Amino acid sequence: MKQTMKQDSGRLNDPRFAAAVEKVLESYEALGGINHIEGYNLPSRERIVLIINDFEELIFPGYYDKEQLTRRNVRYVVGQRLARVHTTLVTEVAQSLLHTSRCDTAGKAMSRDEALNRADEMVLALIENLPQIREVLREDALAAVEGDPAATSFVDVVLSYPAIRAIAAYRIAHYLHVQGVPLIPRLITEHLHSKTGIDIHPGAAIGKGFFIDHGTGVVIGETSVIGNHVKLYQGVTLGALSVDRAKLDPQRKRHPTLEDNVTIYAGATILGGETTIGTGSIVGGNVWLTRSVPPDTKVMVDPPYLVYRNRRTGDTEHMPMDFSI
After folding, report:
1. 225-226 and 288-289: which strand pairing?
2. Which tens digit of pLDDT belongs to each residue from 234-281?
3. Residue 255 DSSP symbol
4. Residues near 292 by Cβ (< 8 Å), separated by ≥ 6?
5. Which helix (H) or strand (E) holds 24?
6. Span 101-130, pLDDT tens digits
7. What domains, with CATH codes, occur in the chain?
8. Are 240 and 221 within 8 A, CB to CB?
9. Separation of alpha carbons 257 and 7, rounded Å
């Protein structure tokens, strides 16, 4: 350690290195937006990850715990875990409220005591609503068990299906988002995005019995509305049409609506806030949609052709691809 410190100190005396340090510091002065010097502390990504882990163990008790839960110790373990979540999350929510109020030039910056009081109320409300969140997540897990022939049980789904973890994190993040908690909801969903490949914005409104099969590459935008018992496959995008941000109405719905009992197959892209997929409809793989679909409709790609050419004779045969569902 001492040797390393001596080497670092010697490097600072190197004129070329010292000049490089000065240029970096000058860039801090010149380039705003990506600096946060002398600002309020931001929420800690590391602590948010720990909080997510605690919530997973609270939502699915006994599945992810390192020690066995029994009827004798469950009250103590859950009480301790909830107390830890409350203490840690209140601090992180308060940090995010302080930062946001400080950046809001239209209003008066919030005091630390006010931020802590608001954070305490928000986190306590989330804890009080955990039973309701668990009730919806049970419907999500049941949708996986019933919707995937490869799923053998709740244990199979909760332990090994990435979608159930992404959806659980989304439901916690969505509750905080609706309460007006800044920054943290997105940190929660983006952490699970990095772990599962499933990108769900916390602002999306998603009904019960939601199932994402396989999951990798699914994108669900901020203003998406998804009804009950909807099923998505991998690579589905519920996105927005590209717009000029300067002309964007922040209240405008930018992402599509999927009504109840809709199925979207792999690779489908559905764009636009006015696009609605009607109840009971099925959208086939690789479909591109920017207009609404009536209820009980199947949407498929008109088959292109595969060309088989013999490398020696040059003879060719055209075979239509089968996109039927």
Report:
1. unpaired
2. 999 999 998 777 677 778 899 999 999 999 999 999 999 999 999 999
3. S
4. 274, 275, 276, 277, 278
5. helix 15-30
6. 887 655 577 899 999 999 999 999 999 999
7. 38-198 (1.10.3130.10), 204-295 (2.160.10.10)
8. yes
9. 59
Question: Hey, what amino acid is at 29?
Answer: E
Q: Which element (helix H / strand E) includes 257?
A: strand 257-258
Listed residue (49, 48, 52, 54) closest to 78, CA to CA = 54
Per the CB < 8 A criterion, the answer to whether 203 and 174 are in contact is: yes
Q: Which amino acid is at 323?
A: F
237 forms bridges with which residues in the sheet? 219, 269
Can you tell me which residue has the tokens 């005396």? 13
Distance CA 53, CA 142 (A): 22
What's this model's pTM, rounded to 2 decimal places? 0.87
Residue 193: its H or E element: helix 184-196
C-beta separation of 212 from 198 below 8 A: yes
Q: H or E stretch including 137?
A: helix 130-147
Q: Is 195 helix (H, G, I), strand (E, B) or coil?
A: helix
Q: Which residues of 254-282 are buried (b: 16+ CB within 10 A; e: fewer)?
A: bbbbbbebbbbbbbbbbbbbebbbbbebb
Strands 316-320, 305-309: pairing kind: antiparallel
